[in-house]
Amino acid sequence: MKKIFYAIFTLLLLALDSAPAWADDLRPPLLLTGSLQRDNQELSGAWTYSKDLYRTGLTDINGWVAKSRMQRYRDVNVAQEEAKGGAGFFEFDMDRGPVMTIPGAWNAAQPELRYYDGLMWFQRKFTPRELKGGRAFLRFEAVNYRAYIYLNGKEVGRHEGGFTPFVVEVSGALRDGENRLTVGVDSLHDAQTIPTQITDWDLYGGITRPVRLIYTPATFIDDATLHLERDGRIAGALQLNGPNAGGQTVTVKIGNLASASVTTDAQGRAAISLPAPRGLQRWSPDSPTLYDVQFAANGDVLRDRIGFRTIAVRGSQILLNDKPIFLRGVSMHEEEFGPNPARNMTEQAARALLTEIKHNLHGNYVRLSHYPHSETTLRLADEMGLLVWSEIPVYWTVDWDNPAVLRKALSMQAETVYRDRNRASVILWSVGNETPVSAPRTRFHAAMAANVRALDPTRLISAALLVERHKTGNEDVTTIQDPLLDQLDVLAVNTYAGWYGDDALADLPGMKWDLPKDRPLILSEFGADALAGYRDAGMKKFTEEYQAEYYRNTLAMAARIPTLAGMSPWVLKDFRSPRREHPLLQNGWNRKGLLSETGVRKQAFGVLADFYLHMGGKTGQ
Ligand code: GCU
């Protein structure tokens, strides 16, 4: 019965699939994809800030309207007002507040903010250019977790979700000369947020990715996408925004390879279809060819760098450009190397991390866990040639039966797909991580799987599932008992035998797996902690020797799984987690990294690098 339900539900959503990608109500009203190449004014840099732990800048006690003396977003020069004297007074001053460098989480900015978890107000002033009939937008690449945006004392936008971009039009709210931008950021999570309040990673509250003021003509290309079809054609769609969006001729140029022109419909939309271009160099990890693509309409140009490839499954194989590929990867959090990371993923920081995977581990794949990473990282994966698993933080457990929470998850998926669907590196959309099986949970994930398939039918769907182990006699068999399997293209499991629990490392290679024979499997996580430099031949847990021996034995076990199509061991480098508080071994760090937080390689790094080298790290795709 359940399968019929899922099938009907999926068919319903997949019926949308035949409709062009714009036929979904989850599309944000404004995308401004390709904004990095647009005419913009950088607003990252020095912002003042003001703590507001009890949120009195938004709502006063008893739910009353906030007192004006606490309303951080007011367009007021406090010093000037105070100089006038009188009965009024203020309990904030955003102009004379302390300064923080944005982007970056407040937790890393000041010792007293290390575990601050609540509402923080930020302000910066800027002087915009004259619009001369054009338009202006604020684009935030990420604010964790809720954002309240005010310009010159007026609310202009809000957003929920810590890892996806959002755009606010400010054409009508800007004034000549100096403008006051105030942003309230609330990091607090609860049982109805995604993720909820407990995760195995750090708080990282704040404006964690760049903020830009973007200028466009009155009518502009808001979004444009292209991909390679299995039959060699290039297909896509675009959307114009503005008073003259309808009936516009849009030219599409793909390097010197191909060009076309399309005309938008009354809603400013157009589908694109080009015959298979001769001489197309397909994108792959070994040959990450990117084309300069240009969409031009009505005096506006949207530029992107796009790689063209296909991804599919056949039986238990993953096919990249119709050839089987093994995903030699590792999992990674969005956290730069260093003793005090602020989740400020600059290109340099991302390159340092991805270089370890590509060139030192001989990898071709990275699991960007457990949330959408920075666009900077995705574009670098395109450039360097790393395949990507992307996920939103439906992690451990969320409020499965709550329609509002499902809507949040579906919106986060849409915001991620619209941002990243031109990234050749992204091949997998994951719908969850280690979520305990229950009927409401499986319904939630099935809706997510159908949603992301309708948003993007060109990529594969997976989820990092839990395994079950059954001992029958002296047989110890690992299986996946999960009704969600039917909704996935690629199976994936997190397994920690040899770390969590009492398995002897020597027993790992002989572990038996009972898996579907016709589906590709990824070991999406396995790992063990080690404190870099803690050496002891006695094989104690947390030593480098134990972690290395764990990898040798787990890799031996993995090599015996006939349907194994890839792996992303947990985790590239040690990362911050408030759940890891052993005073000698952890100190607030999860130590499963193959590298320490400052980039010191542990013994296990070499074990995995050798394994990948011998798996074709030099030759295979
Ligand atoms: C889980 C989880 C990770 C976590 C890891 C660990 O598999 O997915 O987010 O960090 O286990 O226990 O270290």
TrEMBL record:
Keywords linked to the UniProt accession: Glycosidase, Hydrolase, Signal
Domain of life (superkingdom): Bacteria
Start and end residues of each Glycosyl hydrolases family 2 sugar binding domain: 106-217
Domain annotation Glycoside hydrolase family 2 catalytic: ranges: 311-556
Signal peptide positions (record): 1-23
Membrane spanning residue stretches: none
Pfam families: Glyco_hydro_2_C, Glyco_hydro_2_N
Family annotation (InterPro entries): Beta-gal/glucu_dom_sf, Galactose-bd-like_sf, GH, Glyco_hydro_2, Glyco_hydro_2_AS, Glyco_hydro_2_cat, Glyco_hydro_2_N, Ig-like_fold
Family: Belongs to the glycosyl hydrolase 2 family.
Protein name according to UniProt: Beta-glucuronidase
